[in-house]
Amino acid sequence: MTHKVDFATSSSQALIEALCKRLDEIRLSRNISQADLADEAGVSRSTLTRLADGQSISLDSFIRIMQALRLTDHLAALLPDPAVRPVDRVRLDGGERQRASSKRSATAPWAWGDTEPDA
Q: Which end of the chain has less neighbouring CB within 10 Å, N or C?
């Protein structure tokens, strides 16, 4: 089951629900019981029940569950590194910085439109 959510426009509650359900689906796809995952993560089984229901859990519990599921490499993708500026990213990729707007083409001189064209 995939929970499609627009991360740019969804409410925080919708995001919490989608992330919790994704973690629970990963648990299920790996055929790990709630009790076993709770033991491995050091959280209560009721925390995993709330997770399965898409309810809010603490950030600490969320991270512990991700660690137990060996998903910690995905945590770095949550937030960009603030030490790397956008200009530096372009330079690292070997490109050159480009302006946001394109060059404007020459246009005919502007007129009111209520004058008659020259004959």
A: C
Residue 93 CB burial class (10 angstroms; 0-12, 13-18, ≥19): exposed
Q: What is the DSSP string of 23-74?
A: HHHHHHHTT--HHHHHHHHT--HHHHHHHHTT----HHHHHHHHHHTT-GGG
Structure tokens at 92: 């690292």
Out of 24-28, 97-101, 110-114, the most confident range is 24-28
What is the Cα–Cα distance from 6 to 62, expressed in whole angstroms? 20
CATH number assigned to the domain with residue range 12-92, chosen from the 4 options 2.60.40.1930, 1.10.260.40, 3.40.50.11270, 3.40.50.300: 1.10.260.40
